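TL;DR need structure tokens for one chain.
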Amino acid sequence: MRKNTLKILCLLFSLTALAQQQKTKKEFTTKGKKVTVYTTAEDLNLRLSTTDNLTFSESKQPLETETSVFVEPSKKFQTFMGIGGAITDASAEIFAKLSKEKQTEFLNAYYDKQKGIGYSLLRTTIQSSDFSSGSYSYIEEGDKDLKTFSIDHDRQFRIPLIKQAIKTAGGKLTTYVAPWSPNAFMKSNKNVLKGGKLLPEYYQTWADFYAKFIKAYEKEGIPIWGTSTQNEPMAVQTWESCIYSAEDERDFIKNFLGPTLKREKLGNVKIIAWDHNRDLMNYRANVIYSDPEASKYVWGMGFHWYENWSGGASMFDNVAKVNEAYPNKKLLFTEGCVEKFDAKKYQFWANGERYGISMINDFNNGTAGWTDWNILLDQNGGPNHVGNFCFAPIHADTTTGNLIYTPSYYYIGHFSKFIRLNAVRVNTAVSRSALLSTSFLNADGTMATIVMNQSEKELIYNLIIGAEKTVVRIPAHAIQTLVY
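>> reply
TL;DR here they are.
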């Protein structure tokens, strides 16, 4: 008996020692590492360009007159789940008009990790949205039993593009979906447009609809990772929209959507609550997460960036407050785009900077993934069947067949190309407000630190990690990724 006890103790000691060795081995160090700097800048011909190869040297207390970025690798936070964009009907319809050569260029630009910016997330719609050539449904109007359900509409443009995107990305894209509106007969206003509410007698019919859609897409070879309850549930729009109060969404998830997905053996499909702007996300989180029966079905909260419609600033702190209050729930940026399309502003630099500011703040506030809106639109900012024309990171001029890359594409790329799946965010801070920064430690041991200069002048800053530093030059209105 004593021998067995001794053997067990020895084994436990060995395992503990091995675990400690592995932990020590995995601790991040700058010793012997080079820093590769990639830069995109407004007034220079730099677009994700390699601009420097630097080394680390000894660091001491920085002066107040110096500008510094501080990275503390031992302080770790959320795990990164990816960056991507939405494949809407509009994007798929425009893609189909491109030449084969331009289609390949486009797919590589987004989804190839070496040739492009390595997108790993994908959002798409359940039925039509404003970014469709017209409203449509997967069932005949009035079919409460869903006997006529078919996704044939999506097989023409959207499903082929999704399949090509997945293939270009190496066989996997984390794909999630969202509905814009139930059918007219299920709603209080008898219209898929202009808000209205889902009638209680159709709660179960609508929950069954999600399950049918998810199974139909999975049958096409497109695994669905998650679904939100409703896109923008507090906005009465001229396009497809449906209103849910926080209490409505809580009860729909608790009594219908959650149990239905579980019953249909789709319990692994994540449910994303809210899927609307940062302004009201705290109330929605409080209502849904305080109900254990609803909360158990919810993976986390999705949010958008359009709260500035009221004339105010972006409410980044609300994301941090939800993360602080509910640390066991995830956060996912599910939609953002630059509104009010104007072809004269294809290269308007502030559009790209809006992405950089949002992404850095959202990640620093606990967001796990970040999803842009349409991956592709035409020279009119559409198609959009209600005239809600917007910008995309890439536009296609269907009259010339050319692709137009906007600053937003490159700003997103400074994150998506260098932060890999399952990276972990680490503590990062700046000493001057002209700079913004975030850092992620990749699973292969490399660090990606993104630094953005919002000012009108070139800056020199210290990148300080522990007792070592390197000195970096960043142009005015530029973004950099430092890989080391």
